[in-house]
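Write out this protein's structure.
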Amino acid sequence: MKAAVRALAAGLLSLLATMTSAAPEAASIEAATYNLRLNLASDGANAWPQRREAVKALVRYHQFDLIGTQEGLIDQIRDLEQMAEFARVGRGRDDGLDAGEHSAIFYRRDRFELLASGDFWLSPTPDLPSKGWDARCCKRLASWARLRDKASGRSLAVFSVHFDHEGDEARRESAQLMLRKMDEIAAGLPVICLGDFNSTPDTPQLRALSERLHDARTWTLSPPYGPVGTFNGFQLDAPMSDRIDYIFVSPGVRVLRYAVLSDNLDRRYPSDHHPVVARLSLD
C-alpha cells in the first residue's frame, strides 16, 4: 500500500514538473526577422513573383507570431497581408507613406493587441524622411509597435530596422539612435529588436547594441540551430559564415531557442537572406 502511495505521489510530482516546465513554452513568442529582398525583375527566376508563395508558406509552417521584415516594397507588403491572420504596421522609407522599402512588422491578430505604432528615420532628423550621416543612396528607417500579448497579458515593444549598407558612420550612429529610441518608446517595457544590421558581430555598432541588449544567438538556452551566416545571395553553396541579421532582446526576455532557417524549395531559397527566428519568453 505504501509503495502504491509513493508511486502515485511520484507520478503527481512528475506531472506537476512537466506542467510547470511547459508553462513558459505555452506563452512563448515565435519572433523572426526576415529580409524579403525587394521585388526586382532582374532577379529572374528569383524575382518576388516566383517566391512569394514560398515566403508565406515558410511563415505559416514555422508558426511565426511576430515578423520584422526588411526591403519589402508595397506590392510585397500587400502580398503578405493576404495572410489574413496577420496585421501589419510600418511605412515606406522614401515618403513616410507607401513609397520605397519598408521595415514592416507583422503580428498575429489573435495573439496581440496593437497599443501604438510609429516609424523613425536613421538620421539626425528622425521624424522626417531623410538620409543619415554618410549614407549615400538610401533613406533608412525603423518601424515599431507596442503590443499587448493576449496570452500572457504582458505588453512589449517591437522594432524592425534595416541599417545602411555603405556608410560606416551611418551604421555606428544608427545603433546609438536605436538605443535612444528604444528607451524612449519602450519606456521600461520588454524589447524585441528585429533587423538586418548590415554588420558583423565584431563591429562597433553591434558591440554597442550588445552592451545593452542580448543577442539571441549567444543568449539562447538551447544550442543554436542552422548556419551561422544569414545572407545567402540565392546561392545554395554560399559559405554562410557571416551574420548580418539579428534578433536582440532586452534583459529579462528569455531566449528559449534560436535558429537560422535554410529552407529551400526545388533548390531555390525564398529570399537572399535566411529568416532568423527565436522562441522568446517574457519572464
